Amino acid sequence: MTDHQTTHDADEDIRNRDIRIFLNGDIVHRDDARVSVYDSGFMLGDGIWEGMRLYDGVWAFFDEHMDRFFGSCKAISLEVGMDRAGIAEAMRQTARANGMTGDVHCRLMLTRGIKDKPFQHPALSTSGPTLVIIMEHSRPVNRLQSAGIRLASVPQVRGLPHSQDPKLNSHSKLNCIIACLQAEAAGADEALMLDPHGFVNTTNACNFFIVRAGEVWTSTGDYCMNGVTRQKVIDLCRANGIPIHEKNYSLYEAYSADEAFLTGTFGAQTPVASIDGKPIGDGSRPVTAQIQALYKALIAQHVKDNA
Ligand SMILES: Cc1ncc(COP(=O)(O)O)c(C=O)c1O
Predict the structure, then answer these.
(1) Which cofactors is this protein said to need (predicted)?
(2) Positions in the chain whose pLDDT score sits under 70
């Protein structure tokens, strides 16, 4: 193991070497799952994706993920070619082909398809969309829960919605990747990104929360991914009497927070150990632990209701 870690670290699982991938209606071994070099996703990052997680046979918050997915596709005039029942069926087929029922992460990807010529204009993508579903056996590593993730604030900022809306889960993730590279160069695991005004916004791959004097703070949501887990945490705080604020705050308040954590479908809530080398709190994380327990119970109830 290197000393580098990411929020998406999972236990090694050799079954992933032989998984079956959904590729435009076919189920193929991962070694045979190939798209054209003319594919709009490969050539231009012109596509939309979703990350989802399977718990005991139920895809957590499938409706919310589909709201975001279909909303993003509509925003970029990308015809999905099927409704959400069709997506659910494609995901069922993929899970069945892999004998998967739980501890599974899914990356659903839709691109504008194969282009006639290697140029940008969307009208050159005439094949119809490319739909790929990758499902992997995936259990987040335990180590992150105790050690926490190390963040560095970076010069790369989240964009304004009228350049490339950060709410679009687009295949092109260069803005986030540049941020991550900058964090790595600073000796951290992942990046803490600011908004165009200098307020703390989000990390390169997850949403970001701090805890101060028993209150939970997160950004206004204006420049970050509209994370499904982010919204669940906000709703859980509201329903359980934990003060929650969506507001502007700066690094000054983040450095001196009592606790900080990230949210995302993969890792649920991941504690933050440090920001720019400054340890966060004293290492005890009572509010994070309370939210983790509430989220676990929410998933259990969701699975029960949708089994
Ligand atoms: C940049 C970014 N932030 C946050 C998230 C977390 O969102 P969710 O909770 O829906 O997984 C994602 C996941 O796609 C993301 O790409």
Answers:
(1) pyridoxal 5'-phosphate
(2) 1-3
